[in-house]
Structure formats: C-alpha cells, structure tokens
Specification:
7-stranded mixed beta sheet, two-stranded antiparallel ribbon, 9 helices, 14% strand
C-alpha cells in the first residue's frame, strides 16, 4: 500500500492509502460523492482507508485521438482503442479494425466515443425526406463523386441505408456482452431509436466547461451499469456575443474542410480524465468486490 496525493474537484489535495493511483482516485471520488455539500475529508478518509479497486480491461471504440485511451492508461488500466483509421499518436495500443470485431474479447468496460452519428442525430433527420446535394467530409472522395452522380431517389435511398448502418453499429455496441458500457452520441430522432435493439434515452448530457475546458459542446452519454459523470471543475461561461464566447464556441464554428469531422468529434481532456477516474474507479471497485 502507498500514500497518494489526490486533488478532488477544486479542493486542496488530500492523501489516500491505496495500492495504485487508480484506486486512490476512486477513493477520492467515492468520498466526494458521499460527502455531499459537507466536505469532512478526515472522517471520510478514515471510513474508506481500506476500500479497494482493481485495474480493469477497457476497450475505447471509434477513437483516433487517443485522448480517452491515454486517460485510462495513466491510471494503470489495461486499455486499448480501436477504429477503422490509425491513431493520431501512433500508439501500439490502438487496433485498426471495426469495433464489432472485438466485442466478445472479455472486456470489463466498453466506451464508444465517436460512432458515426450523422444519420442518427436529430439535426440530420431532415435528410431522410429531402437528401443533401452533396456528402460531407466524413465520406471518401470516391463516395462523394458517386453520390453527386445520383438522382434524388437514389440519394434518398442512400441516406436511409446510411441510417441503417449507423443504427446497426450503435445497437451492436449497446447490446455487447460487456457488463459496463458508455456510448457518446447526440440525441437521436425517432427513426434511429426504432432501429436500435433495447434502446434507452441517454443518461446525461454534459459540457466540457463542467470539467475545466473552455468550450461549448453538448455531449450525451448512453450508460449501462455505470454512474453519471460528476462535474470536476465547473467554469463560468462567458456572455453570449462576446469574443470569449466565440472562442468557447470554436467546435461549432469550425470551417468546412477535410479535418472538420475530427475537430468536432475529439474528446476534451477534462471529460476524458473524469471518465477514467469515475468510470474506471467504479468498475475497479466492483471487480475487486466480486
């Protein structure tokens, strides 16, 4: 057992006795949750000094940035990411494949961070009645040219096929044989919901500025056997119309281009760190108690 210093949600650092940093962070998170508005760290430390948690085996699906993978890795978990594209950080813990190829490999926790959502989300439902004239940058140049040559009916059929593909991927991940699951996805329209087996509404929608990042981007999480994320460092948002507000809105103001989809989909560091500490700690404690 070692003593770790952990700074919890803006409070002064406190020391926790644990086998690993991950366990210490779980103790701190659990203490915060149980303390409520009254923060008596000494009392809670005494109560939880013998609590434990274990490193868990985690798959981060549909991620190329490595942000979420690195957050869990820093806490000592056995974590891997996967995507159809290589990882930006060239990690040897990234697998280039369809996430569905790995769902039966005995994971303790699955976090799917950026599944294709354009055809599932409310903002895209209009294209199911009147298809767009062109495809966005998430499609290959070849697909974009093929689409341009289609007539309206063919384009509309293409939109519905893409909806089916997106729903199939979400459904496969949501119903995977993994005890704890988190999927990041915008609020869906009714056609998407109808296509997903065992659909439930997202458990929560968070903002980066709840976790110390100066940005606006509503992020919804569908959760199975995992707690809602607790804000770690809530900032005060700038007033609308100010230059600072525009800077915080950079995700929504990203100009068209080949990398726009990556800019708009990347996980913010504060959310990644909170997920690693809270979901990883939660899963580790459950695993240790089993």
């Amino acid at each position: 057992m070692k003593t770790f210093s952990v700074e919890v949600y803006g409070y002064a650092p406190e020391r926790f006795l644990a086998d690993t940093k991950a366990k210490a962070m779980w103790l701190a998170f659990k203490a915060f949750r149980e303390a409520g508005p009254k923060w008596d760290f000494q009392k809670i430390f005494d109560q939880h000094v013998h609590s434990r948690g274990s490193p868990v085996r985690i798959l981060i699906g549909c991620e190329t940035s490595g942000m979420m993978r690195r957050a869990f890795d820093r806490l000592g978990h056995d974590v891997w990411s996967c995507d159809l594209l290589p990882s930006d950080d060239r990690s040897n813990r990234h697998i280039i494949c369809d996430v569905r190829d790995l769902l039966n490999d005995g994971w303790d926790l699955l976090a799917v961070m950026h599944p294709p959502c354009t055809r599932l989300c409310n903002s895209g439902v209009r294209w199911l009645t009147e298809p767009p004239t062109k495809l966005n940058e998430t499609y290959s140049a070849e697909d974009q040219l093929t689409y341009l040559a289609m007539d309206r009916d063919a384009r509309l059929a293409f939109m519905w096929r893409e909806l089916d593909k997106g729903a199939d991927l979400f459904s496969a991940c949501w119903n995977a044989p993994i005890e704890r699951i988190a999927i990041e996805n915008p609020v869906m329209h009714r056609h998407a919901k109808a296509r997903i087996e065992n659909y439930v509404d997202p458990a929560q929608t968070v903002q980066p500025w709840w976790f110390g990042d100066e940005a606006f981007k509503g992020t919804s999480f569908f959760l199975k056997s995992l707690p809602k994320l607790v804000p770690t460092n809530k900032l005060t948002p700038p007033k609308a119309g100010t230059e600072e507000h525009k800077l915080w809105s950079k995700i929504h103001r990203a100009p068209p281009g080949p990398d726009r989809w990556k800019i708009r989909s990347e996980t913010f560091p504060g959310i990644a760190d909170a997920a690693a500490a809270q979901w990883g700690g939660y899963a580790g404690a459950q695993k240790e108690a089993a």
